[in-house]
Amino acid sequence: MTGTVRRAGAFAAVGTLAVAVPAATGFGSLELATVAAIAPFVIVAALGVTVIGQDSRLFELFARPGDYEDGKLYGLAAFSLAAAGLALLAVRFSLPVPVFVGVVVIVAYGNLGQRLAYTVRADEVVATAGFVLVGFVAGVAGQVVGTQIQAAVGEGAAAVDLPLVLFLAASGAFVAALLRSVLFERDDPLVMLTVGLLLWLFFELDPSVTAQRVVIALAVTVLLGYLSYALDTASLPGMLTGVLLAFLTIVLGGFGWFAMLITFFGLGGLSTKYRYDEKLDRGIAEENEGARGSGNVLANSIVALFAVVAAAASPSHITVDPLLFFYAFAGAVAAAMTDTFSSEFGGLYDNPRLITTLRPVEPGTDGGVTWQGVVAGAVGAGIIAGIAALTQDISTAGSGVILLCGLVGMIVDSLLGATVEGSVVGNQGVNMLATLAAALTGASVVLVVGLL
């Protein structure tokens, strides 16, 4: 067994202390319950920085590379204190205790799964799959065990909401794997806290999910994520970002929403690869051989993701018709599609003109447009509008709104590119603002014309 596997196993053992927190909730007073919940983690943190010396076997077991320089187990202390912070939120505030247990073991056992996968095959995709798989199983088990322990001490119901448990475990595993792919191992406390707060939000939304939908979402998104990585249309972080967004879209939105999103991911990725060598010669090709990273995927999809979550929160938490958020979602996806098509196809043609002055500019100039690119963008928006019409109960006018959103997004993207891109915001910021403008257009138009 390698040293990294042993260390991951040791951290997993510390993470298992989370199962003591549900039992602590059974103590008579809130103060005593709080002390009992956080004490195991605080003690471990204190031992790591005060008692365990650099010449001990425990130090060798838990030490991360940076710990050797300081002679203290700061990595162990930070991990334990992050767990203690979440335990405090669980006991004193409204973070569900079973969810807390699930979060801690997702990160702890996910890391172990990743290290074990590395011993089988030294490939980052295989290792990430190990993280997600083991983290997911641990997350499900942690929530179930936490629920049963809390019920045994009389501080909760024994019934397990299996669909919600599966949804939270899968979401947590995907988010943790994504963060781990862009951060260092020493940043696990940040990963744990981020996943904890996100799953807390999802729990409070109380989404109406079914086990069947969650399982189908897992199967579909993992398969498509692997294909996107195998075809080099996305980097590993980009693939994980797309998988997470697709999973949440299926579970919280539905398969019609997912159809629009996956069409953008699929056709957008293929359009990037189209005549790539020629784009490379013209200086307009995407970096990394066209494989889109997490920043690019998020910039084009973050507005749509917020729309999905908002739709899941309405009308129970937000007194707004969910259909309003559907148009915001569809508009944002249409804008992302038009931007991608217009730049990837339009950039192959000569004589682009700056959208603000119509003067000729070099291919690849921010804000430069060609009529071929405009047509390609309109086709992209039309594809999304057509899918919306086929999968959702919307009128012809509703499809027209989505088409309009795509065109607005394309225009806003070009205007921002010609004016502020590079000096005020970067390309990813421009993409996000363009999709936001399209989403707001969709929501505003349906309100004004009364399509709700």
Provide a descriptive summary of the structure in words.
With 452 residues, this protein is mostly helical. The chain folds into two domains: 1-205, no CATH class; 257-449, no CATH class. 75% of the residues lie in helices and 1% in strands. The chain contains 19 helices and two strands. Helix 15 runs parallel beside helix 19. The longest helix is centred in the first third of the chain and has 29 residues, at 124-152. The protein starts with a helix and ends with a helix. Keywords: Membrane, Transmembrane, Transmembrane helix. It is found in: Membrane. It is a multi-pass membrane protein. Belongs to the TMEM19 family. Its main location: membrane.
3D shape: globular
| Overall pLDDT level | 88
Distance between the termini: 60 Å
- Secondary-structure-based class equals mainly alpha
Order of helices and strands: HHHHHHHHHHHHHHHHEEHHH
Helix content: over 70%
Biggest sheet strand line-up: 1-2
The helix count comes to 19
Strand content: under 5%
Give the biggest sheet: 2 strands, antiparallel
Ranges where pLDDT stays below 50 over 5 or more residues in a row are: none
Q: How many separate domains make up the residues?
A: 2
Q: Total strand count, please?
A: 2
Q: Any idea what the radius of gyration is?
A: 24 Å
